[in-house]
């Protein structure tokens, strides 16, 4: 007979996991995503200490380096960052010598964002640090399972992103 404190009985009368326990939540998608997300944020947080703006600064540096250099406004829209916040963020990245702003030849009012050599070098280092953080968080999975997890997560993220037209980001940066 199952006791009240041991949780719901399983098929066959054996007690199930106690309500609220990690075992009871192990099949809950929200709980699992939250645990992985918090673990990744914690492990990756140290990687951003050299970047003005932390994770947002990293996103700007990544976008400026790996995609067509766009205007400040295009970059802000692409990353979902308020224009005013983007201006301050770019000011900080420029002061740190990580990006440069150049006049747009097609529109004198617009500025194009380009990484500096220092910015490219920092991004390469950050990629290695973030790779180590990912390895740490996903250490419970084998190499093939990690690859499959990333691929499935990117597919799910792309689908969820397509359902939200106000979200311009993509999972393509994760593939790098």
Structure description:
Helices cover 57% and strands 9% of the residues. With 176 residues, it is mainly alpha-helical. The chain has a domain at 49-134: Winged helix-like DNA-binding domain superfamily/Winged helix DNA-binding domain (Arc Repressor Mutant, subunit A, Orthogonal Bundle). The chain has a two-stranded antiparallel sheet with strand order 1-2. β1 and β2 (107-115) form a beta hairpin. α2 (29-45) packs across α6 (117-137) and α3 (54-66) crosses α6 (117-137). The longest helix has 21 residues, at 117-137. It starts with 21 loop residues before the first helix and ends with a helix. Mean pLDDT is 81; it is low at 1-10 and 172-176.
